[in-house]
Here is the input.
Amino acid sequence: ESIRNKELIPTNTDEFFESSVGNTLSDLFFRPYTRKMWGLEPKDLNISVGSRLPVRTNNDDRYFNDEFQALPEKGYSEMVENMLDHKNIQINLNTSYVKGMEENYYHSFLSIPIDEFFNFKFGKLPYRSIIFEEKLENGFDFDAPVINFTDNSPFTRKTQWNLFPNSYNFEGKFKTVTYERPCSMQVNPGEYYYPVQTKESNITYSKYVKLSKQESSLTFIGRTGLFKYIDMIPAVEIHMRIAK
Here is the structure.
C-alpha cells in the first residue's frame, strides 16, 4: 500500500501493476513473467490481462477470490462425462469441422477460431501457445502443487501432480513434474492457449463479432470463438448462459 502509485489511473497492464503494487514488486514478480508469457511488453497489453492477477493486503494466499473453492470430487473427466450422458447427445470423436456441415442442424455452437471461420477476412487474431515438458524427478516435494517462475527463465510454472487431491499415498520414487514454456503459435501451430488482448486485437475481434451476427444459426463459443481467456468456473457459467 505504501509503495504503489495511488495517483495513477491505469490504462494498460503495466500501469495496472504500478498502481497496484508499485514498480519494485512489479519488476520482481509481474513484468518478467508477463514478457515471457505474452511475448509483449506489459504496456502493450489490455488492462484486462493484468487485472486477472489478484492483489491483496491480507493473509489469503489463494489465487481466486471465490468464497468456496474446490475441484470436482471425482475430477473434471467425470464431470464432463456426466454432462454428456444424455439420450439426446451424440458424440463423434476425431471428426474435424468442415464448413457447411452446420447447415444440417437447426443451430450450431462453434468453438473453432472465429477468424479462421471467416477466412481471416480482417486478419489473424493473435494467440500465445504453451509447450508442456514432462519430467520424472526424485527430489523433495514442492511447497505447493504449482510453482510459478517470475524470473527471466524460459518456463512460467511447474506442476507436481501427486500433490493434488485424489493423489495421496504416493509411494513411487519418481514424481511426474510438468514444466510450461510459453511460445508463439509458429512454434506450436494449432495449439491455441492465450488470446493476446491488445487495443488492436480487440478492434479486430469486434469486426468478426459484427460479421458473426449475420449467421443466425451459429453461435461462437469457447476460448477461440469468444477470443477470451476463460477460467473454469466462468467457462461453465458463460456457456450455460449462452446455451439457455
Remarks:
- Helices lie at 13-38, 47-50, 75-84, 114-117, 199-212, 222-225, 232-243.
- The chain has a mean pLDDT of 92.
- The longest helix spans residues 13-38.
